[in-house]
Amino acid sequence: MGHAVKLIPAQHVTPFVRGNKNDKNDALAIYEASLRSQIRYVPIKSEAQQEILSIHKIRERLIKQKTASMNQMRGLLINFGLFMPQGQNAFEIVEEIETTTNLCQLDQDKDFESEWVFSPSST
After folding, report:
1. For residue 24, is it within any domain?
2. What is the residue range of 89's domain?
3. Burial 43-63 (b: 16+ CB within 10 A, else e)
């Protein structure tokens, strides 16, 4: 009893779409694609597979947000004349230095100057 569910990848349905994209044309394209014997169907994912996939997507989004935040912070620091290298290591260095020294005295540190470029803020 019931219907056998089969998933068709969107890239296999696209060649059968006629005219503008709307529900009627999409349904017709899916129907035509399902009639073809050479169409490969996609296996249905289990709940465990869907959970793992969602975790990976969340992780990717968090990495993108972290990278965007670091790039934004670097851009804002440039406005104050502080040019820092790219990457997470630069922010870890800032955190270490922040705990041991005052940020205003960084331009006097010669070892630190080799990696960083300090210039007066031009406003």
Report:
1. no
2. 68-118
3. eeeeeeeeeeeeeeeeeeeee
Separation CA 73–CA 91 (nearest Å): 10
For residue 38, tell me if it sits in a domain: no
Residue ranges of the chain with pLDDT lower than 50? 110, 112-114, 122-123
Percent helix, strand and coil across the chain, each to the nearest 5:
60, 5, 35
Helix H or strand E segment including 117? strand 117-118
State how many domains the chain has. 1
Q: Which pairs with CB-CB distance under 8 Å and at least 24 residues apart come from 42-48?
A: 42/7, 42/8, 42/9, 43/7, 44/5, 44/7
Separation between Cα atoms, residue 87 and residue 26, nearest integer Å: 45
Q: Which residues pair with 118 in a beta bridge?
A: 82
**pLDDT one-digit tens code per residue, 97-114:** 666 665 555 555 545 444
